Amino acid sequence: MNVLEVNGLNKTFAAGGMFRAIGKAKWAVNDVSFQLKTGETLAIVGESGSGKSTTARLAMRLLASDSGNVLWGDDDVSSLSGKALRQRRSHIQMVFQDPFASLNPRMKIWQTVAEGLRVHQPSLSQQQRRQKVADTLLLCGLDASGMDRYPHQFSGGQRQRIGIARALIVEPKVLVLDEPVSALDVSVQAQILNLLKDIQRVKGLAYLFISHDLSVVRHISDRVAVMFAGRIVEQGTAAELFAQAQHPYTRALLAARPIAHPKERHSIAVDANETTEATADSGCAYQPRCPFATEACASFDGKLRRQSGGHDCACLHPLPIND
Amino acid sequence: MTYIKVVATVARLRHTSAMLEIRDLSLSVTIQGNSVEAVSSVSLQLESGRVLGLVGESGCGKSLTAQSILRLGEHQGVRKSHGDILLDRDSLFEMSDETLRRMRGGRIAMVFQEPMTALNPVFSIGSQIIEVIRLHLDMDLKQASARAVALLTDVGMEDAQQVLAQYPDALSGGMRQRVLIAMAMAADPDYIIADEPTTALDVSVQKRIIALLLNLQRKRNLGLLLVTHDFGLVAEMCDDVAVMYAGQIVESGPVSEIFDQPAHPYTRALMGCRPEVSEAGHALPVIGGQVPQPGQWPQGCHFADRCPLAQDDCKKAPLAANVWQQNQHIARCLHVNTAIKG
Fold first, then answer.
1. Is the pLDDT reported for residue A20 higher than 70?
2. How close B210 gets to chain A, by Cα (Å)?
3. Based on the domain organization, do A191 and A284 belong to the same domain?
């Protein structure tokens, strides 16, 4: 069953500053569609500015899209707002990147974690709420004895567990995880990734996992969508994408992954003076950087097409699989 | 330009056995009024032409160690409690303020992590680079600005002349990091300390900055100290590695040996929990427990409480850095052979 579905999402932001009225609107998200099933992890990867976080915020209805619709389960929430939207929010919850900035330093841990209950289960007594917080903290690997402490008394990894508990307490079906481990040390990152896997297994949750780190994505996700300049340029199972990427941009991203051992050095030549970060306004946005671009790319519609390998790729000249 | 080259060449000839050496250095910091040891007996040697990686998790003391080389952090209460830092046999702690000022940027330069905050937003790129050049080299404005253009071209900036007039907010993160690298090169230093130089950047930009740093390092025969938490970066760039844990160097040696056969149980564990070396979908190996805070270090091996191989002897007394040694490869561990067999 699809617990989250978005169709043809578009979002533009007006050019900032005092020339707002005459500035050109910038596409942040352009015709983005995906589905997410129970118990599944879909990763959205891309570099800063690719629109991955905006996509997540649109899917959460923290931002309203210009067009397109968002379904939470069978519920079309695209046009809901205010109280009607708030009441449905227990369906989808979010875990943020920075465990230091995302917890209120003046609130005790249990108050932070219990906040969602005020909206979604207002009939609970304080006793019941505290019990629920203790259970949820335990699920996240934290001892309930810490629930009357403040955030500064916890380490980064523990705070991220608290952030996860806060999201889980209203029993969502979908968790949106926006770079949940990128602020953590490697050894702590491993603990949190394991925890997320365990919780998913126990609760059957679906994850929308936003990340720029391909090693982490390969580890945790079932399917991957690669975003570039507001569009999904390639989408498929994690196994397909990591073994048989066909979009030149995906290939470039994969090639830029950190190496695991010094003997892999120089396997890929990198031009240190290659500085272009440009994107094209019409046609395929990746043209200015793409070594395979042709004239036809300037009028490409940017839509995903099913490839022979079985996954979707938005490229006029998809790379052969056995390259 | 030729003048600088001559000066630089003379400087290099003078320092034929050029070396930056940290010798048994301990640093203490002030936490809530108490002086607490945060770096404990660290020894490192950086030769010109080499890249040394100082790797560890947050709070292990790697940045504190690196910053102490420029004697930064002293106004924030970081104090040397033991040991010395030698630049070609001269102690940095005995230098006059004037010599120290010339040394910073002139002999040893630093590239910081955050390209967004390391540049001053209200001065143009040109004025910031030219300031550094004129501080260290005897040049008039015209010469200095020509040098700035040359430096920016060296770090791969197109239209360097135009960039001079721009302000930091007009540049992307990768471009700002290039500017910072150009600034570090401004007075032709012999050593560069790079503290997480690519952490804030996108992966593809990261790759190019790494290539740029390595190109410059080779071309100018620099000694590069790379401070990082990322073994991928170490694998990519370094000749030698030192791994820090809770204020101590627990293992050091040539990069290929450390990756082929990590000796210390902490190094092995830390390398093992990287998602890139694990099988997708399986649980990642983890290190139980937490890093002890400064002031709460165990008496013996700092890792003993979390180590699967720890015996009673590990906890009795402080261990020497080279308790285990195989040529250049040393480890602060009594049970390396068990670790390697296990």
1. no
2. 8
3. no
CA-nearest of B195, B220, B212, B218 to B54 is B195
CA distance A90 to chain B (A): 28
Instruction: Identify all chain B residues contacting A265, using CB atoms and an 8 Å cutoff.
Output: 235-236
One domain for residues B266 and B135: no
The residue segments making up the domain with residue A215 are 2-221
Please give the angle made by the CA atoms of A269, A272 and A275, to the nearest 5 degrees: 120
Does residue A74 sit within a domain? Answer: yes
Phi, psi of B141 (to 5 degrees): -55, -40
The answer to whether residues B21 and B133 belong to one domain is yes
Residue A282 and residue A188 share a domain? no
Closest CA to A315 of A286, A280, A276: A286
Interface residues on A facing B, Cβ-Cβ cutoff 8 A: 47-48, 155-156, 185-191, 193-194, 197, 212, 214-216, 218-220, 238-239, 252-253, 255-265, 270-275, 277
Listed in order, strand segments (DSSP E) in B79-181 are 79-87, 90-91, 108-111
Q: What is the pTM of this model?
A: 0.89
Q: Answer yes or no: do B203 and A253 touch at CB < 8 A.
A: yes
* Statement to judge: residues B231 and B272 lie in one domain: no
Residue with tokens 């991203």: A253
Domain count across chain B:
2
CA atoms lying within 13 Å on the CB side of residue B263: 30
Give the residue numbers spanning the domain of B307.
Answer: 262-277+286-341
- Encode pLDDT of B259-299 as tens digits: 999 999 999 999 999 988 888 778 999 998 888 988 899 99
Interface test with B, best of A48, A153, A219 (most B CBs within 10 A): A219
* Contact in structure between B18 and B47 (CB atoms under 8 Å): yes
Structural domains counted in chain A: 2
Q: What is the pLDDT of residues A273-306, one digit of tens each?
A: 666 677 888 899 999 989 999 999 999 999 999 9
Q: Is residue B267 located within the same domain as residue B120?
A: no
Using the beta-carbon criterion (under 8 Å), do A263 and B256 form an inter-chain contact? yes
Pair B94, B176: CB distance under 8 Å: no
Asked if the structure places residue A243 within a domain, the reply is: no
Residue type, B313: D
In degrees rounded to 5, what are phi and psi of residue B253? 165, -175
Residues in chain B with CB shorter than 8 Å from the CB of A252 are 204
Query: Amino acid identity of B138?
Result: D
Q: How far apart are the first and last CA of chain A?
A: 36
Nearest neighbour of B204 by CB, restricted to A156, A193, A253: A253
Residue A299 falls within a domain, yes or no? yes
Sequence-separated (6 or more) residues with CB below 8 Å from residue A323: none
User: CB-CB: which of B209, B255, B280 is closest to A219?
Assistant: B280
Query: Going along B208-302, which residue ranges are E strands?
Result: 223-228, 240-245, 248-254
Identify all chain A residues contacting B278, using CB atoms and an 8 Å cutoff: 219
> pLDDT digits over B37-48, tens only?
999 999 999 999
| CB pair distance less than 8 Å for A259 and B275 | no
Residues B89 and B154 in one domain: yes
